[in-house]
Specification:
By secondary structure, this protein is mainly beta. It has 1 helix and 10 strands; from the N terminus they run H-E-E-E-E-E-E-E-E-E-E. InterPro entries: Ig-like_dom_sf, Ig-like_fold, Ig_V-set, TCR_variable_domain.
Length: 128
């Protein structure tokens, strides 16, 4: 996939719902093909109000999982993060929606939206 991205100047981003919270969130679009250096906006919709905190994670082509946004709960909450391969801005639109603007994309990645009952600042198995 990486060589195809370099050859044609496109980067594949996938937004997936997996694991225990799969039935609690819905992501749109499910995947996106983005021209190198361009931007895309993804949305995550909360389906269960018992899990009001929402977060975004990324998995890069090497399989490394990273927290993109801390747990955002309230309308207007925002977080910005720059990582190699893309810049991110997450915005909690309302009590049901979390948007993620991904800009300056240069590497493929998989993005995950999650929800929780409490705030999450880092992955338990990392030092972030």
């Amino acid at each position: 996939m990486a060589s195809l991205s370099l050859l044609w100047g496109w980067v594949l981003m996938a937004a997936l719902s997996t694991g225990a919270n799969a039935s609690f969130v819905e992501q749109r679009p499910r995947w996106a093909l983005v021209r190198r250096g361009q931007a895309e906006t993804l949305s995550c919709f909360l389906k269960d109000a018992q899990y009001p905190y929402m977060s975004w994670y990324q998995q890069d082509l090497q399989g490394q999982l990273q927290v993109l946004t801390a747990s955002l709960r309230f309308s207007g909450d925002k977080e910005v993060k720059s990582l190699p391969g893309a810049d991110y801005q997450a915005t909690r639109v309302d009590d049901k929606e979390l948007k993620l603007q991904v800009a300056n994309v240069t590497q493929g990645r998989t993005l995950y939206c999650t929800c929780s009952k409490d705030t999450v600042r880092s992955l338990p198995w990392t030092d972030e």
